[in-house]
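Subject: Sanity check before I submit

Could someone independently write out the structure tokens for this chain? I want to compare against mine line by line before I put it in a report. The sequence has 399 residues.
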Amino acid sequence: MADVLSNRNSCVVITSPRDANEASGNTKQPASNEVVVLREPPAHIRAEFQGKLGRDMIEIRIPCSDCVGLVTSIGSDVKSFSIGDRACPLFFPYWKDRRPDTAKTLRGALGGKNVLEGGMKQGVLRTRFRCRAQEAVKIPTYLTDAEASTLPCAGVTAWSALMGYETLPDDINLSQSTPNANHKRLEGKVVLVQGTGAVSMFALQFAKALGARVIATSSSNVKLQIAKKMGADLCINYKTIKKWGKQASSATIKKFGRTALNAGADLIVEVGGAGTISESLDAVRIGGVISMVGNLSGRSGEIKRLDRIFYKAVRIQGVVVGHKKGFLDMLQVMESHRINPVVGQIYPISKAAKAFSGDSTGATYKAKVMMGNRVIRVSDSLKGRRMDSRVESRVRSML
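---
Independent answer below. Compare away.
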């Protein structure tokens, strides 16, 4: 049995859990440096699925890059995990730290073809998978399964957009409870996040935890009200305010006490792409940073006044998820500030097709307003009703 999901010109076959286990060899005992993770908690839906993953995919492939699961067996040399630990895989299993310098650093991305190196690695929409111990991280106990499943792609992407790819020296203890010096770079800064999707909601939460002031944009006043309850200092409806970039820049003078000389956002989490970059160039301050995360509004188009990039000395940085050290650093801050990811919908595995298409009718849990992450629960054996109710109560408190 297999469910076929289609999206524009793509065709993706999701194999059954049994097929997935046999195809990936998960029925074998782990090697000395491997762990086997039972994928009964949910798998997070990648926002990029309809993009590079699906454009020219014709071979059978198991999709999804984000998940959390229980470690069920470990190799004889594994010291970092114990049976029963909850673990998340790394989106890029070979990327340890710092900026990637070769295509090999970004090889083996979960759930899709690696556009830089070719080849692919099966994703996590299955009941079990195996990996080397260094390709996974332990997850804090306070997070629900649904919340933890959203971290490897959306969470790490948002963290990288804010913090960049440079890391602290190896002798820094990332497990310490107090924030380290690297986290102070956002104190007092102005961060602008676009929309209320998974990456933007993570960025809002991280930025506030690290002392930044946040401007949030959306076309929905209801969603902006929720963003404000989550800590956004200023909300702009880009549907009613077409020139929201200039609005955001001038608002930093009125609301945050800046002058005309340094007006604008210090950092912008740019998820729109061609359709929003012109407004972002209006919103960013002189010497500011635009983190290019996505292209939801288009891959190509006219960019007005491109000269603003060099006249304003703007740095535009591409963000492609992130490395393991960034993941661990992010978890430290999340645990210290008790940050809970925003989960908008949870689907059973039988309704996975609806999760990909955005159809909420098959969801076992759905917020009144869709924000943040969509999650698929792979197995019905755990159900996770207690966990899901905790997610639901948190979302309802924001409405």
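---
OP: Matches mine. For the report I'm noting this point. Residues 202 and 355 are 20 Å apart (CA to CA).
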